[in-house]
Amino acid sequence: MGVSGLLSFLENYCPSACYKVKIETLLEEYRQQNGTVTLPTIVVDGTGCLRSLYGDLDWVCGGQMKEFKEVAEHFVQSFKNLNVRLVFFFDGPTVEEKRPRWVERRIQSMRDVDEILNLISMPPYKSQNLKRKHRNYFILPPGLGNVARFLFKTEFGCEVHVSVKENDEEIAEFARKENCFAVLAQDTDFVILEGAKYYLSMANLRLTTMETTLYDRSELAVALSLDKKYLPLLATLMGNDIVKKNELTKFHTKISKKNHYKTAKQVAAFINDLQINDDDETVYDKIAEEVFGDTSKSSIIKYSVESYKPISSPADDSIVSELDCKTESWKEIVREALRRHRNGLTSAHVWAIVYGQPFELSTALENYRSNDMPFAAQLYCPLRQRMYGILLKEKPFPEGKTEHQISEWVVVPGFELMKSSIVISPIYPTVPHPGLLALWNDSSQDVADKKWNLFVNAVSETINGDELKKLDSHLILPAAAIRYMYEYDVISEDEAKAFIATAVVVSHSPAEWLRRLNVPKINERAVRLATLYTRGFGMLTLLVTAIGEPVPLKTVMPWLSFDGKLFQKIYDAATRRKEENFILCNKKEENLDAFYKVASVVFNDPLYKNRKS
């Protein structure tokens, strides 16, 4: 992520542009220089900071969501203690110009997943060996981005934005307009972009002392003897998400003989030697000829350079006007979908679908070399199709067409051979649909009932919606997700019971107790099932936001009903040791009562609780 080799150059060879700072000291200086600013703003690259924020929590077993919530709360409170306003930005849909890079990263992470699952399945397994061997590997627990976004907004009251275009550019633009104190991120693109006064490192942040590393854009330019206005060209010719580093190998070899230190220095020297005339319209042709020996590459160089330059994003009305909405009613729906997306009120996928962009599903801990269980993208395809039907029911058909089609970039076996996205069609609801604007904004009981019916209809035609509705709110999505997996014969009855018991135990378990859980042996099948479950839970959360919250989003967050390590322990108890339900429920009657209520929905058996444990 960011500019290839720049972080290494900064940290190893450029001390004037990369040094440790105390954030409190910087704030004092900033307040003295800006006397009218009482609440300095730090813009956080929410997506880019997830890895550092998640830290050392277990990520193999499916995610430690309640522990993550505590970590995130401590993070927010640490900045509140310094009287700082945090504003989070999260990625929206992938910008299509960066699709090749997105695909490349997914292919690499598929290889990582293969290696991780091999280690888990090779006896004798030791969890500490996995951590040691995979210090540099990390697969985000499915849905963590959505969890973090809703967490910061609904639980901690932070300002949250979701990007429409490139996230880095929107962060930099916001930081400039709002005269922000700092950007907190881990992406060297921010060294190049003009944004806040300071760019602070998330990876090096220590909350105990509130110290981190500062990367100084101006000092970098001085160290390279380069005018700051040419930093975007430097980033382009070092390699970034637009111009790949491997495409520059011959150029780098020619000027620096593959020495990382010399690469930065020599690229800067190369730029200075060009003696660029800013009025010369052929300058990119000349650079392309020098770098690639091919003037046709001038357009991608220009695109990369201009992506770093300060620009104003188009107004939302302009974004809506770009679409051929055909009707005013659909245009109003698109406008409202954009507003909700910007403000983090829905999953980012909702805007993508309404706007006509592809649906994305990234890599997770699935065995892409085996077909012994379905893959998440395939398993939940019917659910997505029914959700598409809800979102696109009012959209006019394209000219000359009688059907909508949705493009999907989803990671499945053979993904590395895909040259284009998969295309699927929506399945329209068979129950009354009051219209998206009503679903999103009408609080009447009539619309609330229609929301619920649409939700149940999208999940399953066989699930008992009345019994599902009677469950405590935090158990509705777990019951629906487990029912879906059971209905499609993905899990056995014992495995379903393990998921149910996990859901009812987590809600009454403090994070500290979950943190102390030790899982000496990890079951590979349980890891993969946890992936399928959390993917399904994420799809249901997406459905909930698409319909306008048939159940309050705050009451169905995954930290209320899932914990990866706990699931591993209960899975072993349920499937290998065949423990009684009371034991699975942590020997608590209140948990057992909730277990039977959920089980009656999952197994579609109102008398399930009367069966033998």
Topology:
Blueprint: H1 6-13, E1 18-22, H2 23-33, E2 41-45, H3 46-54, H4 65-80, E3 85-90, H5 99-121, H6 127-133, H7 144-155, E4 159-162, H8 167-177, E5 182-185, H9 189-192, E6 198-201, E7 211-215, H10 217-223, H11 231-238, H12 249-256, H13 260-274, H14 283-292, H15 298-307, H16 316-322, H17 328-342, H18 348-355, E8 359-361, H19 376-379, H20 381-392, E9 406-410, E10 422-424, H21 436-441, H22 445-459, H23 465-470, H24 473-487, H25 493-506, H26 511-516, H27 524-547, H28 564-575, H29 581-584, H30 589-602
Parallel strand pairs: 2-3, 2-5, 3-4, 5-6, 8-9
Antiparallel strand pairs: 1-7, 6-7, 9-10
Helix pairs in contact: 4-7, 11-13, 11-15, 14-15, 16-17, 17-18, 20-22, 20-27, 22-27, 24-25, 24-27, 24-30, 25-28, 25-30
Overall pLDDT metric: 93
Shape: globular
- Largest sheet composition: 7 strands, mixed
Overall structural domain count: 2
Number of strand elements: 10
Radius of gyration from CA coordinates: 26 Å
Low-pLDDT windows of residues: none
Assign a percent range to the helix content.
40-55%
Distance between the termini: 51 Å
Please give the count of helices: 30
Beta-strand percentage range? 5-15%
Strand order of the largest sheet: 1-7-6-5-2-3-4
Class based on secondary structure composition and strand pairing: alpha/beta
Keywords:
Rossmann fold; 613 residues; 3-stranded mixed sheet; 10 strands; 2 domains; 30 helices; 7-stranded mixed sheet; alpha/beta
How would you characterize this protein structure?
- This protein has 613 residues and is α/β, with parallel strands linked by helices.
- It folds into two domains: 6-222, 5'-nuclease (Rossmann fold), CATH 3.40.50; 328-610, no CATH class.
- Helix content is 52%, strand content 7%.
- The chain contains 30 helices and ten strands.
- The protein has helices spanning 6-13, 23-33, 46-54, 65-80, 99-121, 127-133, 144-155, 167-177, 189-192, 217-223, 231-238, 249-256, 260-274, 283-292, 298-307, 316-322, 328-342, 348-355, 376-379, 381-392, 436-441, 445-459, 465-470, 473-487, 493-506, 511-516, 524-547, 564-575, 581-584, 589-602, and strands at residues 18-22, 41-45, 85-90, 159-162, 182-185, 198-201, 211-215, 359-361, 406-410, 422-424.
- The protein has a seven-stranded mixed sheet, sandwiched between helices.
- Strand 5 (182-185), helix 9 and strand 6 form a beta-alpha-beta unit.
- Helix 25 crosses helix 28 (564-575).
- It is globular and about 85 Å long.
- It starts with 5 loop residues before the first helix and ends in an 11-residue tail after the last helix.
- The model has no long low-confidence stretch (mean pLDDT 93).
